């Protein structure tokens, strides 16, 4: 009798297992469809973020090679910094980067057209056609798109997103040159606490910079400018 009940239990377990196995494809499809429309997102209102931009501003020689980096010394922090700042209302980020370089250093700067810039930005439709473009990185020719984004807390419950560009200062390169800037009309050097502005050789600039993040920016920009595609 016990053997009979044991057999029945075994058949019941086997039957349940068979039903579960048969249901697996349907479960897989249901889970896949549910996950298909789920994204890992964090939404911030306009009270919770601020956009900023800056430029790693190089002095290039006649061949187009980067030679020096423009740094500003912030007296209250006693720190050498790259130029950056918040975007004004209605201003585009590229304009912000150029404006901040001038306001903090007194140097005129332009966005540098990078010969080979890795980017995930798609080509304009007139160049790419109507075909869907990949989300993978590609090498853009002569591009002035941002080469890096940084994020950090700013204030209480606020996030600052900083878009970084590669810039070129409008000062001709001379090998024995030691360039510095005095206060320029229209700049905010004195009001923002910048007491010394200098163009440093790249290796020296990396040593002078106070923050690891700024050193990463300079090294990354130099790598993009000097590495063949």
Automatic annotation (TrEMBL):
SUPFAM superfamilies: Nudix. Keywords: Hydrolase, Membrane, Transmembrane, Transmembrane helix. Residues 48-222 form the Nudix hydrolase domain. One of its GO terms (molecular function) is bis(5'-nucleosyl)-tetraphosphatase (asymmetrical) activity. One of its GO terms (biological process) is AMP biosynthetic process. It holds the Pfam family NUDIX. Gene3D superfamilies: Nucleoside Triphosphate Pyrophosphohydrolase. The chain crosses the membrane at residues 12-31. InterPro entries: NUDIX_hydrolase-like_dom_sf, NUDIX_hydrolase_CS, NUDIX_hydrolase_dom, Nudix_hydrolase_domain. PANTHER family: BIS(5'-NUCLEOSYL)-TETRAPHOSPHATASE [ASYMMETRICAL] (PTHR21340:SF0), DIADENOSINE 5,5-P1,P4-TETRAPHOSPHATE PYROPHOSPHOHYDROLASE MUTT (PTHR21340). This is Nudix hydrolase domain-containing protein. The lineage of its organism: Eukaryota, Fungi, Dikarya, Basidiomycota, Agaricomycotina. The gene is I1S8Y5.
């Amino acid at each position: 009798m016990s053997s009979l009940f044991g057999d029945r239990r075994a058949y019941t377990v086997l039957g349940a297992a068979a039903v579960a196995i048969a249901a697996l494809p349907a479960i897989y499809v249901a889970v896949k469809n549910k996950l298909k429309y789920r994204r890992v997102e964090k939404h911030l209102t306009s009270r919770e973020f601020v956009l900023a931009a800056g430029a790693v501003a190089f002095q290039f020689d006649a061949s187009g090679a980067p030679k020096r980096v423009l740094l500003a010394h912030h007296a209250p922090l006693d720190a050498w910094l790259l130029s950056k700042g918040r975007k004004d209302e209605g201003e585009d980020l590229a304009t912000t980067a150029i404006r901040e370089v001038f306001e903090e250093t007194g140097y005129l700067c332009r966005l540098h057209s990078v010969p080979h810039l890795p980017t995930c930005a798609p080509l304009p439709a007139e160049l790419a056609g109507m075909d869907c473009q990949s989300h993978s990185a590609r090498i853009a020719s002569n591009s002035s798109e941002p080469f890096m984004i940084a994020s950090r807390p700013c204030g209480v419950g606020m996030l600052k997103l900083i878009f970084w560009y590669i810039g070129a200062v409008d000062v001709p390169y001379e090998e024995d040159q030691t360039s510095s800037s005095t206060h320029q009309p229209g700049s905010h050097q004195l009001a923002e606490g910048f007491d010394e502005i200098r163009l440093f050789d790249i290796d020296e600039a990396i040593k002078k910079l106070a923050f690891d993040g700024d050193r990463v920016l300079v090294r990354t920009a130099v790598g993009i400018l000097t590495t063949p595609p």
